[in-house]
Design goal:
heterotrimer; A alpha/beta (249); B alpha+beta (379); C alpha/beta (321); A: 249 residues; Rossmann fold; nine-stranded mixed sheet; two-stranded antiparallel ribbon; 6 helices; 15 strands; 27% helix; C: 321 residues; alpha/beta; 2 domains; globular
Chain lengths: 249, 379, 321
């Protein structure tokens, strides 16, 4: 079985986002780029399954649609245990464009399981996985919180409002990963970093494709008015304010 | 000239930072206060390959360059210098010497498990009467034909109680002065070795520092490291590299304290504004930033020279001297910026300040570094 | 040209977010000078469907197939696309919740329609179609231009509000063509957690962090939540340390929520945490540290020990009911 994990390259979650070029571009200066945290969880689970040895997973591959600045992120994916990385060399204009590029790759390179994170911490689209499943015409499991494979049988937990569903299904499918799928992302070990040097990072050119949307401009939120402090001895005042001023209680 | 780090060096720095933030930060105050050896944390350090990151892959190491080592040491030291000193001693004092001077059998038996982190190494040079002044060794290793018989006391030994491997320096031919010194690579559990009580230190309290006593310890001939009489060279060369480790540790203490102070100065308000907006504080932080950057250049330069195969003794002494002095100054200022909060343990900076003091002392005091540097000026 | 809002039901009932969705669709249709259609999938009683008329549904299309009572993004996307094609609709609006997030990407590919996920406002312009959405988890906004002829929007909760706009009931049934192949995922079982109030839906959320000192100190948090009918949540370190389950973690890498009222108790206010709750209408911070960054994003603040403040606050609210 082969698992493909879709990776997006996003600014570190502690980054204070800034824009340049009249708010048309994200300001890259001082930004630390990381694997989108949800994608990293998906990758971690895929590697765990492979290492477990009982799941007949032969290969864990990561794919990204992006420019060369994403290579460092892909190398990290290799260092934490992916076998192979693919970068489709293009500016990821919108989710549709990204999904269509990956779908095109999948036509000639089939995978049994495709994983992606439920959110990306940059454009918050959470759309690539769902779009891919439609391109592939296969089921997509959203909010996947558990993935187990035993003798080729796949068991999945899906978080639903107020609980979870336990599903069984056959491959191929797209899993859209939510927190809980694994404990914590891995820290690359020296050995992994060393081995990543020898693992393939293929750069493919993009196919001609249209995007359906694009970002025109960014905007930063306006700062909030200052916080009203309430004396801990007079909490009834807080309750009154919540009722009469904020009208939320 | 090129000031860019490689992609791989950045990845190692980030891995060390993630490890420090995710796995060392929680509990560091308690480990310091109770002087608890960071057993789990050292195990993880080994799993991640930091304990043998400089050792060649052939001997189960990470095969990383010294520049990466500086970056990793800085990140780990920002959070827990008790852990980073174990990493420094294992890597640059013990593993380095074995890789450089050891026989294949010694590498197989000692270097591989140390590089994997399965065994921890300690470096036994200092004595009650002899620190960096290695020729004054009182510990003797008498050549008995088929073995050496060792007697003496070693002091202030990092990982003295937990290490499984000792790199021991002792005199075999006292009359030959430094040409009579030998280095040995031994199992710490040999008969006749006893470990003194845990030293109750001012800082780096979680690292395990002991005296080690040798009472008629029989060391087989094949455990001698290098040629007969090569011990002094081994010790001095190991210390040259060790200085890069401790300099990076000092750098980490300084930059860790600086980051906390910078953050605090933007959050804490007095007279209606963030204290960063008071020039007295802003200038302090500017000075700190400049000195840290200079210390970082010293460390990276020494590491780069080592990686290029060029002499680095002078550079590593300068790095150690400057970084240690900077650590002391910057951590003291960080406490000052924190005001009353800086004096309580919760805010970390007082611990960093106590730890910084040791970087001016061990692996050659600042004064010793000046001796090394000044001698080098005429060389 | 018309606007279709997909009204998801939960066990046959709509939620406030559904009314907000229909209100929004109505406003958009008004601006486009077209009709507001509302699509319901699964069995819903007519009296429940009729409620949507209050918010401006010109026509309600009901697909009352019992096989569709449980959400399948694949099947729902198929049904919606059949309706869109039949009605020749140009705009599809879904709620930006779990179901909307699952269905909209599939629909985007089926209809070749550009998708703006998590929109926050009515369009800035109609031609070109430009709309505001959140990016970087609330740390910034983006204006997205959708270039395709058909367009899909998912609407962020609490971004438009519920607006009454009564029309008269025009209810039609629709029977989609669905191949059996689509029904092959087996749901083995469903487990519900004991968390009674669903975090994503909650109007009030009581959230606590490391400042609570120990997992054993959560009772006052639970009590405050319970007296207000609120959901409980927590910060990342708390869920990482296993004090609370992952499903309670709110923040940039956890759940992103936008309740009316958010209590941040013993939470310092790291940028990642704030990103996940910044769209709350009102934030109350309770913290022992007066310098905690959470106060800079809060509307109301109390400096004090949660173990003392919470029981008192609970008591005041209880007595005020």
């Amino acid at each position: 079985m082969k698992i493909l994990v879709c990776i997006s390259n996003v600014p570190d979650t502690t980054t204070k986002v800034k824009f340049t070029d009249n708010n048309k571009q994200v300001d890259d200066a001082g930004v630390q780029w990381i694997i989108n945290p949800w994608d990293e969880l998906a990758l971690t689970r895929a590697i765990e399954l492979k290492e477990d040895g009982n799941n007949s997973i032969d290969e864990v591959c990561v794919i990204n649609v992006g420019l060369s600045k994403c290579d460092a992120t892909l190398r990290k994916a290799l260092a934490i245990g992916a076998d192979k990385a693919i970068r489709i060399d293009a500016d990821p204009i919108d989710a549709y464009y990204v999904a269509a590029q990956i779908a095109d790759y999948l036509k000639n390179n089939p995978f049994d399981i495709v994983l992606s994170g439920i959110e990306s911490s940059d454009y918050n689209g959470s759309s690539v996985g769902g779009m891919l499943s439609e391109f592939m015409d296969c089921p997509a499991i959203s909010s996947m919180t558990k993935l187990e494979i035993e003798n080729g049988n796949v068991t999945i937990h899906r978080a639903i409002p107020g609980g979870k569903q336990i599903l069984e299904l056959t491959t191929p499918f797209v899993g859209i990963v939510q927190k809980g799928i694994t404990n914590e992302p891995r820290i690359p070990a020296m050995r992994g970093i060393m081995m990543a040097r020898k693992k393939p990072l293929e750069v493919l050119s993009a196919v001609e494709m249209e995007s359906l949307s694009h970002i025109v401009e960014f905007e930063l939120p306006v700062a909030k008015a200052s916080c009203k402090m309430i004396d801990a001895e007079h909490l009834e005042e807080l309750v009154n304010l919540l009722k009469s001023e904020a009208k939320v209680l | 000239m090129n000031f860019e780090l490689t992609e791989e060096q950045e990845m190692i720095r980030d891995a060390a930072r993630d490890f420090a933030q995710r796995e060392l930060l929680a509990g560091v105050i308690e480990r310091d206060e109770n002087a608890t050896y960071p057993k789990e944390q050292v195990k993880r350090l080994g799993e991640l390959g930091f304990l043998g990151m400089l050792v060649s892959p052939e001997y189960d190491g990470g095969g990383m360059d010294t520049v990466s080592y500086v970056l990793a040491m800085e990140e780990i030291s920002k959070v827990d210098a008790s852990v980073s000193v174990i990493m420094s001693v294992n890597n640059s004092l013990v593993c380095w010497g074995v890789q450089k001077y050891g026989s294949e059998a010694q590498k197989e038996e000692f270097l591989k498990p140390m590089a994997r982190g399965d065994k921890i190494g300690a470096f036994l040079l200092s004595e009650p009467e002899a620190g960096s002044d290695a020729t004054s060794q009182r510990t003797t290793a008498v050549d008995m034909g088929d073995h050496y018989l060792v007697n003496g006391i070693k002091n202030w030994i990092t990982s003295g109680g937990t290490a499984s491997v000792y790199l021991l320096i002792a005199h075999t031919h006292p009359e030959k002065k430094h040409h009579g010194i030998n280095a040995f690579l031994i199992d710490s559990k040999l008969e006749g070795i006893s470990v003194g009580p845990h030293e109750n230190k001012m800082g780096m309290r979680a690292s395990d520092t002991h005296s080690v006593m040798f009472n008629n310890v029989k060391i087989p001939k094949e455990n001698r490291l290098g040629e007969d009489g090569q011990g002094f060279t081994i010790a001095m060369r190991s210390l040259e590299g060790g200085r890069i480790g401790i300099a990076s540790q000092a750098l980490g203490l300084a930059s860790g304290a600086y980051e906390l102070a910078l953050q605090y100065a933007q959050e804490r308000k007095t007279f209606g504004k963030e204290i960063f907006k008071h020039q007295a504080i802003a200038f302090k932080l500017a000075d700190m930033a400049v000195e840290i950057e200079a210390a970082r250049f010293f460390c990276l330069k020494a590491a780069w020279l080592k990686d290029q195969g060029k002499p680095y003794g002078q550079a590593s002494a300068m790095a150690k001297l400057y970084a240690a002095e900077t650590a002391m100054k910057v951590t003291t200022e960080a406490v000052q910026i924190h005001g009353g909060n800086g004096y309580v343990k919760e805010y970390h900076v007082e611990r960093l300040m106590r730890e910084a003091k040791l970087t001016q002392i061990y692996e050659g005091t600042s004064e010793i570094q000046k001796i090394v540097i000044s001698r080098g000026l005429l060389a | 040209m018309s606007v279709i809002a997909f009204a998801k039901n939960w066990e046959g009932k709509f939620k406030k977010s559904t009314y907000e969705l229909v209100s929004y669709a109505k406003e958009l249709a008004f601006r486009l000078n077209t009709q507001t259609l509302v699509l319901s999938i699964g069995e819903v009683e007519e009296s429940e469907l009729e409620k949507l008329v209050q918010y401006g549904a010109d026509k309600i299309i009901s697909v009352d197939d019992s096989r569709l009572n449980i959400l399948s993004s694949r099947i729902y996307a198929e049904v919606i696309s059949q309706v869109v094609n039949k009605e020749d609709a140009s705009y599809v609006i879904l709620s930006d919740n779990n179901s909307g997030k699952a269905i909209s990407p599939r629909l985007s590919v089926k209809l070749k329609a550009g998708l703006a996920a998590g929109v926050l406002d009515v369009p800035k312009s109609l031609d070109p179609f430009v709309i505001k959405k959140q990016v970087f988890t609330g740390k910034a906004f983006a204006y997205v231009q959708i270039d395709s002829e058909k367009k899909i929007l998912t609407l962020s909760k609490n971004s438009f509000g519920i607006v009454e706009n009564p029309t008269s009931l025009n209810l039609v049934k629709f029977t989609p063509e669905l191949s059996d192949d689509l029904f092959k995922i087996k749901v083995k079982s469903v487990e519900s957690s004991d968390n009674k109030i669903i975090l994503a839906d909650a109007d009030i959320v009581v959230s606590a962090g490391r400042g609570m000192k120990s997992a054993d100190n959560w009772q006052p948090v639970e009590d405050l939540a319970s007296v207000m009918g609120a959901a409980t949540a927590c910060s990342r370190p708390v869920s990482d340390d296993g004090w609370r389950g992952h499903e309670e973690h709110v923040g940039q890498t956890g759940k992103v929520i936008a309740p009316n009222l958010y209590f941040a108790i013993g939470i310092s206010g790291a940028i990642q945490h704030v990103a996940g709750v910044s769209r709350s209408k009102c934030i109350v911070a309770i913290n022992t540290d007066p310098e905690a960054p959470i106060f800079s994003v809060a509307d109301y603040g109390v400096v004090g020990d949660a173990m003392i403040v919470l029981p008192e606050l609970t008591e005041i609210i209880r007595n005020g009911e």
